Amino acid sequence: MVATNKKGFGAALWDYLTTVDHKKIAIMYLIAGGFFFIIGGLEALAIRWQLVKPMNDFVSAGFYNELITMHGTTMIFLAAMPLIFAFMNAVVPLQIGARDVAFPFLNSLGFWLFLFGGIMLNVGWFTGGAADAGWTAYAPLSTTSLGEGVDYYVLGLQISGAGTLMGGINFLVTIVNMRAPGMTYMRMPLFTWTAFVASALILFAFPALTVGLFLMMFDRLFGSGFFDPAMGGNAVIWQHLFWIFGHPEVYILALPAFGIFSEIISTFAKKRLFGYTAMVFATVLIGFLGFMVWAHHMFTVGMGPAANSIFAVATMAIAVPTGIKIFNWLFTLWGGSIQINTPMLWALGFIPTFTLGGMTGVMVAAASADFQYHDTYFVVAHFHYVIVGGVVFALFAATHYWWPKMFGTVLDDKLGKITFWLFFTGFHLTFFIQHFLGLMGMPRRYWVYLEGQNLDLGNLISTIGAFLMGVGTIVLLINIIKTSVKNEKVSGDPWDARTLEWAIPSPPPFYNFKQLPLVRGLDPLWIEKTEGRKGMTPAEPLNDIHMPNNSFLPFVISLGLFIAGFGFIYQKHDLSWLIVLFIGMGITLGAMLVRSVKDDIGYHIHKEDLKKEAEE
Amino acid sequence: MKDWMGKIRTLSLFSFLVIILSACGKDNLTALVPKGYGAEQSFNVIIISILVMIVVFVVVMAIYVYVILKFRQRKGQEDQIPKQTEGNKTLEVVWTVIPILLLIIIAVPTIASTYDLADESQKEDSINVNVTGLQFWWNFEYANEEIQTSQELYIPVNERIYLNMMSSDVIHSFWVPSISGKMDVSPENENTMYIEAYEEGVYWGKCTEFCGDSHSLMDFKIVVVSQEEYDQWIDGMQNTDPEYTAETATAQEGQELFENSCISCHAIDASANHPVVGPNLADFSNRTKVSGISDFSKEEIVRWIVDPAEVKPGNGMLDAPYLQENSIGQEEAEKIADFLMELKATDEPVDSVQQFRENEANDN
Ligand code: HEM
Ligand SMILES: [Cu+2]
């Protein structure tokens, strides 16, 4: 158990394929999410390269549409979501003083479903065309799109969505049930709070997507007509289903991002979070309002002035709790001793950027003004300010902040700052100008724009900015490689931080806390440190620790669904593919059966071993 | 500290410069110089919200810059522990209440204009046009005048026109930024909006709902003319001749080719009885653009006929039975172009159109 001998590659691989340890799952989410982020980024650069000058012919119309569709889909579902999950997995159990998540097996299953779903989404590239109906896949364009691209979209999202839903439920249960003694709700770190609310949003939002995707799958693969007006269906219903999911999705991403910044700002300003209670309520309120406003994506659908006005006002209301957050961050900084290193730089870059994104959010919420902004580059600018300026900045910040906790080494601060400045400058060059492009008449999802429409300069600048961001990302990769090669180990608490995850070694032992800590207030580690103690006071005597066994079944279950997906898709051309469908479902159901009938009660780490380890 | 501020300064200077350089866009396309009722209503709300937002941004940035300058950890202060403040009820109430007030300032005109723009009380007494969106062009049928045309919507200046819009395939969206905000064109229920233009001229329209391969090329125009010109145009359109015979010899050959290969989809008279398959080509010689995007010239017409896929990928003309079996060569296309350029509804050229073509020629 205690052995730290180097394992062979095969053994290490097998370890990752079967692990149920939240920390290893976090690393897998980080790698997979990072990989898809790069794919999505390359797609973005191809899009921007096509738009570098008017009437460019770098890519064809059809391929361009695949690029925008896959860029959006990849970034949201395969990069941002899993990267958020990476940090939730790496950090939340530690922050609440738990030994693992509530359902480790389910946690692993969630990851493999996401990964196989993500691969499925991208298979289209190699089989005659990826999805091309936009990441929003509006019917009837999506239901009538030729080829299998949209089928891969539907099945890939369905599989990975199931994984996300499981992850969300798992975190809800974990946070409700597994907090260390003394960790009341109002002592939970903000990142845990936001992970909690985001998980609740997942629980309510993803079923809407699941239902929508099922209906679309039936329309496309089995000839039903849920979204076909000619058959008595309703095409606009898809938009409602999609946005009832899609709008909360933005908050599923943004709230944990807020949590990340709250942690970083209070750590590096060396102050407790200003207005903690207000921050918690603002988080919950944003989560709640996030559900009430989906139709602000549909002001031009023809819902009528009453609906438009209601959704406009409800949307504007979100600005209030968001504003509370911004001011609370500013006043956390106020009177602090602000240390500006890479994670903090991202947090400081986030504040003005996200303020701009929030402000354009209020602007697009004004229905009658949105008649001009909607589906133009203004909106492209707005949502990138929110998802890149909010979420991606947070992911970069979290990468630098929690890297030592996850890997035991610190990323190079100089290179980190270079990454920041390149990305930050590139980001504003790319997207600020797009507000104007939109108002000057450039609609979104345009493969080319005509000559002589005064859109050339703005697009050129935008493309230059995008490439700067690309260079910034490359510097981060170099940083990661350099840090890993040097492999200089750091202590458990390199930032002099405040929350529980910093109370144990970096990287943490596989059982996390030898003895569960006793939490005596907000920022528990900080409390102990200011009272002169080195670490947390244990809340229990040293005891045997119960651990779950590794399992290969999550991988098999997901693989089965992946195989079945091909059966679903190709049976529309040739019924013999039904065999593949049955084989895939057979694998999945078989693996589930094994899981149900096999007794797997895990194992114990004995306290004698823990003692011995401590002495060494 | 210095170099950090410097970076911010260069950055903002640069973006400011960029805005000045690009000014407000092309004046018959931009939403920033409204030339119609709807655009003006939206513009007012845009301006109000921008002003409010600038105030908010300035306040946030003032606190932000002050905090960073003042409370940045300096050399030797690494071990200093600041006072741990919990929060401040008064401050928190202040920054909850003020934003609510600011939002009300935006919400009231928003709601007022949203209702105003949905007003249908004058529909019965106004010109009504039935708009059909298709991949990737637009059909306009004048309900009472019983004519139809495509790609270019003629309207009289300072008149309210009601548009009743439906799609015949996927969802499109009708947008003429200088005149009015957009409205989706859906295949299942009719959406109505009205437009009113303040100045004669030709205004650029775009499809803004992603609709397939040539979504970015689904452009159209609103041609705003004087009341007098409008009446003439309507009259001319009502009298376009289905039995028209071309004048010149090449045009006659072109007409013959047209009647063999094109007439199943395209009509040359503006009667509303023709089914909407391909664009109605009556009055073709007065078009501002070919296929909505290319300069109006014989060369471009020929380019379109010879290879429509090259101009607009995925467009419906590629499915035409005749074109699937035979391709039309350069020479034939030139003859057809000669014929098309003879089609006109009025002898007087339309001022706005002439003006527009000249401007475009200068711009490019
Ligand atoms: C590397 C930085 C990025 C660049 C340069 C970039 C650029 C673009 C461009 C040019 C478009 C197409 C706009 C259009 O034609 O309508 C687009 C669309 C989009 N982007 Fe990004 N993007 C970046 C990062 C991201 C990230 C991180 C996310 C989300 C996490 C994201 C989400 C989206 C979405 C949802 C769309 C809409 C796709 C659609 O219209 O179907 N982007 N982006
Ligand atoms: Cu369209």
Automatic annotation (TrEMBL), chain B:
It is found in: Cell membrane; Membrane. GO terms for biological process: ATP synthesis coupled electron transport. This is Cytochrome c oxidase subunit 2. Subunits I and II form the functional core of the enzyme complex. Electrons originating in cytochrome c are transferred via heme a and Cu(A) to the binuclear center formed by heme a3 and Cu(B). The chain crosses the membrane at residues 41-69, 90-112. Residues 147-222 form the Cytochrome oxidase subunit II copper A binding domain. Residues 50-110 form the Cytochrome oxidase subunit II transmembrane region profile domain. It is an enzyme of class 7 (translocase). Belongs to the cytochrome c oxidase subunit 2 family. Its EC number is 7.1.1.9. Keywords: Copper, Electron transport, Heme, Iron, Membrane, Metal-binding, Oxidoreductase, Respiratory chain, Translocase, Transmembrane, Transmembrane helix, Transport. GO terms for cellular component: plasma membrane. InterPro entries: CcO_II (IPR045187), CcO_II-like_C (IPR002429), Copper_CuA (IPR001505), Cupredoxin (IPR008972), CuRO_CcO_Caa3_II (IPR034236), Cyt_c-like_dom (IPR009056), Cyt_c-like_dom_sf (IPR036909), Cyt_c_oxidase_su2 (IPR014222). Its cofactor is Cu cation. Residues 251-344 form the Cytochrome c domain. Its main location: membrane. It comes from Gracilibacillus salitolerans. The keyword Repeat does not apply. GO terms for molecular function: copper ion binding; cytochrome-c oxidase activity; heme binding; oxidoreductase activity. It catalyses: 4 Fe(II)-[cytochrome c] + O2 + 8 H(+)(in) = 4 Fe(III)-[cytochrome c] + 2 H2O + 4 H(+)(out). PROSITE patterns: COX2 (PS00078). It is a multi-pass membrane protein.
